[in-house]
Amino acid sequence: MTHDELHEKAEAERARQAGFAKRVRCCTASGCQACGAGEVHKAFEVAIEQHDKDDTIEVVPTGCMGLCGQGPLVTVEAPGGEVLYEQVTPALAGRIVVEHLQGGTPVAEIVVDTSVPFFAAQTKIVNENSGKIDATRIEAYLAAGGYAGLAKALGELQPGQVIDEIRASGLRGRGGGGYPTGLKWAITRKVEQEQKYVVCNADEGDPGAFMDRSVLESDPHRVLEGMAIAGYAVGATQGYIYVRAEYPLAIERLKTAIRQAERQGLLGNRILESSFSFRIDIRVGAGAFVCGEETALLRSIEGRRGRPRPRPPYPSESGLFGKPTVINNVETFANVAPIIRNGGAWFAGIGTPKSAGTKVFALAGKIRNTGLIEVPMGIPLRTIVFDIGGGTPEGTTFKAAQTGGPSGGCIPAAHLDLPVDYESLQAVGSIMGSGGLIVMDSTSSMVDVARYFMEFSMDESCGKCIPCRVGTVQLHGLLDKLTHGDATAADLELLEELCVMVKETSLCGLGQAAPNPVLSTLRFFRDEYLAVLQPAERS
Question: b/e per residue, 125-160, with b = 16+ CB within 10 A?
Answer without folding.
Answer: bbbbbbbbbbbbbbbbbbbbebbbbbbbbbeebebe
